Amino acid sequence: MKVKTLHTPNPPLIVIGMHRSGTSLLSQALQQNSIFMGVRQNSHQEALFFMRINEEFMNLAHAHWDNPAPMTYLLENDDAVKEITAVTQEKLHMWETVTTYWGYQNALALYRQSNPLIRWGWKDPRNSFTLPIWLNLFPNAWVIHMVRNGIDVANSLCVREQRRKMQPDYLLSFRCMTLEGAFSLWVEYESMCRRNSMLIAPERYLQVKFEDLITHPQKTLDQIFSFMRISSPNRKHINDFVKQINHQRAFAFKNDERLRIFYETHLRHPLMKLYGYD
């Protein structure tokens, strides 16, 4: 069912970055300061509507979140990208958009243009690969790129997959059951983020380190809200956010000898050096 066009004068905020890099933590902070990130979300604060579309993109390319490389071949096919962009444009005006992303109350306000200043967006690590398609639809989008040390990301993925391997209904990522495999996935995501950052005007792209958000939350959030042109963020919400942060999550690998050894063998990787993790 097609619905009347929604009036969304503000371009969206699109959060990119590798899985387990702090995108959920960022999304939480954004939502506490009046940036709408979807009425229906999964446990990782990913808007179900946009997450499902990203999954459709990857399925078309025979890619998956832990095997995203085939997505690059789809993006190199101009005809495919053009067709996918047109189909997605139609989906943005379907009833599912209202029910799954906006919700009835927000949609009604947008129809009536009674809330023209609404700020909105979504986070999904898959955006790291599908961003060129979204930029076709929203060329003036804001993009925040969350970055985290590749060693901590690899370990977090391994721990999660080991914990889930006893769940019969969960499709394991065998790649991410080893540190080496998970680290190589971090490299793929970050390489694609770097590549896609070239498609964005510098004033609409912001790179945020997870470690900065953890160790200097107020300063980092002020930088984010300044980037988003939010002049009066909710200080109470920021203070509440700061209180719940676990500062030990920054460079957690240093507390584990096995991870320190793994770090020593990977600290000279070009991306580790580029992000200052060497």
Uncertain segments are none
- Tell me the name of the CATH class: Alpha Beta
Determine the mean pLDDT: 90
Could you tell me the radius of gyration in angstroms? 19 Å
> What is the string of SSEs from the N terminus onward?
EHEHHHHHEHEHHEHHHHH
Helix content: 40-55%
Main beta sheet, described?
5 strands, parallel
How many domain units? 1
In the sheet with the most strands, the strands line up as 2-3-1-4-5
Name the structural class: alpha/beta
Protein topology:
Blueprint: E1 13-16, H1 23-31, E2 35-36, H2 48-60, H3 71-75, H4 78-91, H5 95-102, H6 104-111, E3 119-123, H7 127-137, E4 142-147, H8 150-164, H9 179-197, E5 205-209, H10 210-215, H11 217-227, H12 235-243, H13 257-266, H14 270-274
Parallel strand pairs: 1-3, 1-4, 2-3, 4-5
Describe the structure.
- The protein starts with 12 loop residues before the first strand and ends with a helix.
- A five-stranded parallel beta sheet has the order 2-3-1-4-5, sandwiched between helices.
- It contains 14 helices and five strands.
- Helix content is 51%, strand content 8%.
- The mean pLDDT is 90.
- With 278 residues, the chain is of the alpha/beta class.
- The longest helix has 19 residues, at 179-197.
- The chain has a single domain, classed as 3-Layer(aba) Sandwich (Rossmann fold).
Give the tags.
14 helices, Rossmann fold, five-stranded parallel β-sheet, 8% strand, alpha/beta, 278 residues, single chain, globular
What's a quick, concise take on this entry?
This protein has helices at residues 23-31, 48-60, 71-75, 78-91, 95-102, 104-111, 127-137, 150-164, 179-197, 210-215, 217-227, 235-243, 257-266, 270-274, and strands spanning 13-16, 35-36, 119-123, 142-147, 205-209.
